[in-house]
Amino acid sequence: FVSVKECIFKSSGLLCTISALVFGIILSKSQCWLLWDFDNKVMQFVCIGLWQIYYPQDFNISGSMTRILVAIKISSMNDPFTEIEFFCYRMSAIILGVISILTFVAVTLNHLVNIYGHTTFDFPSYFPVKKEDIIKKHCTIVFPIGVLTASMSLFGAIMFLYEMSSLTVQSQVKA
User: Fold this and answer.
1) Could you give the CA distance from residue 155 to residue 91 in angstroms, rounded to a whole number?
2) What is the separation of C-alpha 116 from the centre of its chain, rounded to a whole number of angstroms?
3) What transmembrane ranges does the database entry give (predicted)?
4) 35 falls within a domain
5) What is the pLDDT of residue 67?
6) In a domain, 70, yes or no
7) Count of domains in the chain?
8) 48: exposed, middle or buried (C-beta count within 10 Å: 0-12, 13-18, 19+)?
């Protein structure tokens, strides 16, 4: 019963984590956080997303009317929103930077301890083999994937910092 309960908790935790990741991606990519209808012939509705505003606009292209979805970046519209965006980017960059460092340290220390054999890990007394019986240790894919994960977290932090510098330039040009 204990192993079944442990399996249920681990599976539930993994499922919740993956679901949160998927739903987070869906939310960040969603173009319609808000949908507003207008009593206007030029613009009937506006979709407001997390990053941009979208609305249909009719254009005369080579004599035929074509409806195109136009996007406006939200950060260039409102200064208080830009400050909130700066704060969110800054916090995301800090969190991703910390995650990157902690992931790198964890997988590197684990890898080095495994190579040099200095570990506090020990098998229980009822386990059929002892640590002294080890003939060869194999490297697994955990170290490269951990370094890749740490690199991607750091890359994400750099992207947020780049976006912050881009917003700074936009706000200076706007001023």
Assistant:
1) 15
2) 34
3) 12-36, 93-117, 138-162
4) no
5) 80
6) no
7) 1
8) middle
